[in-house]
Specification:
The complex is a heterodimer of chains A (633) and B (252). Chain A is of the alpha+beta class and 633 residues long. Helices cover 66% and strands 11% of the residues of chain A. Chain A is built from 23 helices and eleven strands. Chain A has a six-stranded mixed β-barrel with strand order 3-4-9-6-8-7. About 1% of the residues of chain A have low confidence. By secondary structure, chain B is α/β, with parallel strands linked by helices. The chains are: A alpha+beta (633), B alpha/beta (252).
Chain lengths: 633, 252
Amino acid sequence: MGRVTVRTLALRALAAHRARLAMTLAAVVLGTAFVAGALCFTDSTGRAGDAPALRNALLGFAAIAVLVGAFVIANTFTMLVGQRTRELALLRAVGLSRRQVRRMVLGEAAAAGLLGGLAGIAAGWGFAALALRVLDGAAPVVRWPSLLAPLAVALAVTSLSALAAARRAARTPPVAGLRGEAAPPPRASRRRAAAAAILAVPGAAVYGYAAVTDRIDEQVGLVGLGGAALCIVAVVVSAPALCQLPLALLSAPLARLGPAGRLAAGNARRDPRRTAATASALMISLSVVTGLAIFGHSLERHTVAGVGREVAAQLVVEPADRRGAAISQATVERLAEVAGVRAVAAPRYASLPLRAGPLSTRASVTVADPAALGPALRLTMVSGRVEDLADGVLVDADLARRYGLSVGDRLGIGWPAGGERETTVAGVYRPGRLISGVLVAQSVALPRLAEANAFAAFVALDPAADQAAARAGLERAVADRPELVVRSRAAYLEAELRGADRILGLLYALLALAVVIGVLGVANTLTLSVTERTRELGLLRALGLTRRQLRTVIRVESALIALVGGVLGIAGGYLLGAMFQRAALRTGLLEAAVPVGQLLAALAGLAAAGVLAAAWPARRAARADVLAAIASG
Amino acid sequence: MTTTTPAAPGVAVSATGLVKVYGEGETGVAALDGVDVTFPRGRFTAVMGPSGSGKSTLLHCLAGLDRPTGGRVEIGGQDITGMDDDQLTRLRRDRIGFVFQAYNLVPTLNVLENITLPMDVAGREPDRELLAAILDVVGLGDRLGHRPAQLSGGQQQRVACARALASGPEVVLADEPTGNLDSRSGAELLGFLRRAADELGQTIVMVTHDPTAASRADRVLFLADGRLVGELSAPTPERVLERMRRLDGRRS
């Protein structure tokens, strides 16, 4: 006769409750896929050398993805263990110690975490690789830490949430469990309110600082995002209480729908913690959605406005595929000789050692022809004049602020060829997309640079020149370079916008994943809560509620939860998105571009998705056999 | 420690001045209000009373499932009121057998595994002779590999009884064991408990509200409003019923 061990119990429980296992696995797979996908995106696009703004956004996104994934897993697991109160109570009554029960639940969690984690990593990677190929034509980059981190998250979160749930189960007196009385839903406690306040106050303070300070850069932006995250966590912690208000507001109109509406509103308000847990999962994913939408929108607007402001040139010569630095100085000179051309700006970029007084650092350096600054590329000066570039270098306002530089200061630049050379700060300008960092005149810099090709040449024409003729001239000048094309200013701006669109496409691919996970999360929780309430639903049926009415109850409840999560999520998303764009684009907090239409659509879609997510649980609830439901347990 | 000898002398379980108050202060409700009771070894005792009389609370306090507010409980001469959770767990596992009204069995384990579960988790070998005797009496020999869901309600309760008896505990505590059964299955189960007391000398305490069930015991105790209000030896259904009527009358 085989002996029953704690492991037997754990494995049997996993094998016997297939539906439960499936739900746990679904949660773990989704959560892990989310994290793995986000990390893969971050790695791959980061390597491709895209804009640092995008990389920061993706890193922030990955951090939030970890949070969302953890939340989805914890939510499901807590409820799944909560459902088993009676089984655990029985085991405790017949003599399993608290530790044995804990070990059993942990064993199950670890097994589910491992299984789901591996599947989730595969799924997340598949999704990321596919999206990268479709949107970017790029191959995903494999980094071990990014593969192992999601697995660690899956294992840690399943174990921790199982532990918390098992502890709660151990605290319910075995008696209550055996009699089939569920522990009364705990009320939003004072402890939660206190914890929320402890999180929210510093969070809001930090956010406020980052919002108003004029020393905005990546670090300050990250701190501000941390503040926003603290505020969002505070909302999650106090959600059981916070959800009461919107639910109370929505209850009155719902009651007009008749008994089903009244019941649905009552259900949603009855167990504030369960409602809040579902709404919070949605809130977090929607915060991410909204945050990224705002960031993407702002980035797009900023790109168009910024580049439009910067480029004065009528024509631009660049590689057709816009990849790589392909324009040599010889090419630039040939372009400059074409009839009708006034000036050619072909900015080169390098990252060089910089010494300012006692400080040593690396800074990005832009090299350009002073004669072309103005006609081809506009520069907005903060102090000094563009012409002063002849006497030294110009630095951008960010750099000047960070290192306390002003006109007249000495600066040492370490050149690849020729070593360090001292120079003077001759002026301070506002950084743009094309010119930023230390701006050095071409005549000084070019001989000292190792790699001196430009990405694009911006060609300014004489006011009297015929644009078509000049364009034909330029095309002849680069006829031996078939990869180069001549674009009008408008065509160049459009291509630039398409670049931003490509980035947005990546972001929206991630968003799609977030929304899918959010909706599946709602379906998951609802199914669980319907199973939990079999008896109650059976009783309602016995008392004369039709199947249809019962289905409506579940659907309305679902839509209600989705809406509450949606409203809170959009608010949280604004906090995140506004700070994202402020940190990445150095703009003011209120300059964030809010895609109002898209957000309203998202909210409407969410309510609809809530109804959709309720389809399966509602069917299940309505199918429940009245007598069996009442007799069960 | 096991009491397989019939009618071993002495007291299996006793409670002295047992008080259990739910809630605090003025809103507190006394479910048990000073109960003194002893359960002699090898005897089958039924505890009766109207609902809310505290009979289930008494059983839970005797079992160490619920902590009394005051007084003491001794099992086999050992005071359990000061025990911590681990000690209580071991006590339940090794010295007490349980039969509940419903939901007695772990659904993922088969019949035999359910019966040996308390001993298995204790890492203890079952007494094979006792186990064989019990399985013989329960009459589920051909269903040992079945899962609880494949059994009828009566069969499930018999498995629960077998589990309670299999470790040879000091006392078997049964909480409305026939409450969910039809009369034939209920009678079968009671006969089974009766034989356990007679043939194995098993001490049994059973809470019930069914006079017929109570009449199968050696002795019936009556509880009302958290106090012990009467006792009946050699009960018959009629005498139990009559006593219950008087209790109800007293209450109103």
